[in-house]
Amino acid sequence: PAPIPVDGPAFPQVGVTAPKTMRLLPASGRKATQKVVVGDQDGVITCFGIKKGEAVTVFKTLPGQKIARLELGGALNTPQEKIFVATGSEVRGFTKRGKQFLSFETNLTESIKAMYVHISGADLFLCASYIYNHYCDCKDQHYYLSGDKINDVLCLPVDKVNCITPVLACQDRLLRVLQGSDLLYEVEVPGPPTVLALNNGNGGDSGEEVVYGTSDGKLGLIQITDSKPVPRWEIGNEKKRGGILCIDSFDILGDGVKELLVGRDDGVLEVYNFESADDPTLRYDHALSESITSIQGGCVGKDGYDEILASTYSGWLTGLTTEPVHREGGSGEELKLSQEMQSKISSLRNELEHLQIKVLQEREKYQQSSHSSTAVSSVPAFSVNDKFTLNKDDASYSLILEVQTAIDNVLVQSDVPIDLLDVDKNSAVVSFSSCDSEPNSNFLLATYRCQANTTRLELKVRSIEGQYGTLQAYVTPRIQPKTCQVHQYQIKPLSLHQRVHSIDHDRPMNTLTLKGQFSFAEIHSWVVFCLPEVPEKTPAGESITFYFQNTFLGTQLESTYRKGEGCFKSDNISTISILKDVLSKEATKRKINLNISYDVNEDSVKHTLKLIHPKLEYQQLLAKKVHLIDALRELQVHEGNVDFLLPKYRSILEEADQLLEEYKRQPAHLERLYGMITDLFIDKFKFKGTNVKTKVPLLLEILDGCDQDGLIAFFEAV
User: Fold this and answer.
1) CATH class for domain 497-573+585-600?
2) Taking every pair of C-alpha atoms in the chain, what is the biggest distance, in angstroms?
3) Of 265, 272, 358, 359, nearest to 308 (Cα)?
4) For 357-379, how does the pLDDT look when each residue is reduced to its tens digit (9 = 90+)?
5) What is the pLDDT of residues 19-59, one digit of tens each?
6) Number of neighbours of residue 162 by Cβ within 10 angstroms
7) Do the beta carbons of residue 679 and residue 467 sit within 8 Å?
8) Domain ranges in the chain?
9) CA–CA gap between residue 89 and residue 92 (Å, rounded)
10) Residues 479, 481: Cα–Cα separation, whole Å
11) In the chain, how many H helices and how many E strands?
12) The pTM is what?
């Protein structure tokens, strides 16, 4: 097999790119190298090739609306070299020379978010946020309204499956398989799917195999048959890498089997190969400094050497080549790079010096003009790519901020109590400012100062359920004049709940029922306000049921509502209490009178305590071990060895670094558990009309003892 890829040629930079907006055109004629075509958010399509290590532009269009997708198509059994771009609600088609042959204004009221061009070239599949449309020869054929946002779309190859079978990747962790305008069936996947691709680029031997990537970094393959889905394999995200934005199939190792190329939003590029016939194995990975929006395998830079080409968020195109880096010289003398590589480095140095001189000249020109009385300073526009998602593994929120230019600093402000958690990948220096929570509702004020050339920053926060408000990030890049963008993120009342497909109906459940003169749209807007991962659009039909799981405790919630009535069931009485308070408040704001009834199951409190207790026990033991570390280390220094210590104390010393790391990663974890048990205690008696706040100190004493039976007995005895 060919060598593993190494850094290849540097390509030109374009504007900010959206996912799936870069493709390689098929090689034409005797030339074995391929042209690159990329669309950016300035609306420009750039097509170029590489000659003698330099990029040569084939064509470049004028700026326009943002390009959301770029696909290739063409007539059946001909090279797929026609370029289709989705921009706004329009689809445009260009030849490989840059001549426009299609301008199709769709009937969509929203901008196109996802597009797929069938290999026939006549079938076009377009998706806005919730709407799917199928066009044949620019005529509307089929329409479907999805229950949640559509992230991607593809169609199984008609020449293999003999019918048009579109597959939608939807935010509610479902793949929806369609037949015409109807839903054929739904496929549950382990995370919100962000990208779809045909396995091997053609759907495999059957044409039914679809690879999906999720926003929480999982990868899987499902066979979409005409009657049911057949899961083939699934890869988790044990290394806690970023979400998957792009997938391609290409034989980069030269072993006759196509590898799976994967691009992630934390800049990690991965190559999976199929050593066994079943599951793929990670063969190679490479870290870039920005999210990878598109990935392709092909031959671009030099005939005979395959490459992986990746485009990043800010518009950089990077190549990894299988061409060996030749070295000269023998043993004992310094190794020198080949003449070709030396000339490449020299050329890049010259280009860099030229750019530095140009920047200095422009900066001087700007400074001179700023002293003029007629000069007007305009605020420079810059793009920010942000993502605020709940992590199921540690019940925390990840806030990822990516800017097209280097970040100077990010100021984070919150009007609700939240904890900032440590992120290993984060190299920024954080400083906290004291803030007065009373007059300004300021609970957090922190500044992250970034190192030079940092374009991506990842933060982690953990919220408290029942306390809701807004988290704000003030992003200041390293550009002149100084300018800042503010981005807001809602911390919802039940912020640690995540959508699931099903729940355990055998658990003891508490029920909250609402009745009143409210519409379906009104009660849906209240649920959207309370819970994450609920689609903003009011669902079709007369009623809807959503299931949720608390990522911190594992408790669950069932939410069913329609016009004039809502029913909420949970095995955690505190969840019901929060919903009751927030929904009452929202209804009062709109002057809607609610009739609220509830049914409390006494067994649910014992059940919730049994879920919390193992976590409480673990955290108390961790805290005790951490408090002993300093004293044990001092003993070790004085005595020289620790053989005289009991084995449990010796193991604390051996694991000291891991224990401290874990404790540091989870600040205030124990306090959170104490707070949850205290809330459970207060809420249990609140529904009985009893105020037990005076007995909280006694409860805290029992918690320090950490006896499950004693804790349950205290709850029942009061």
Assistant:
1) alpha beta
2) 88
3) 272
4) 988 888 788 777 767 766 666 77
5) 999 999 998 766 678 899 999 999 999 999 888 777 888 99
6) 11
7) no
8) 246-322, 384-491, 497-573+585-600, 603-717
9) 10
10) 6
11) 11, 45
12) 0.87
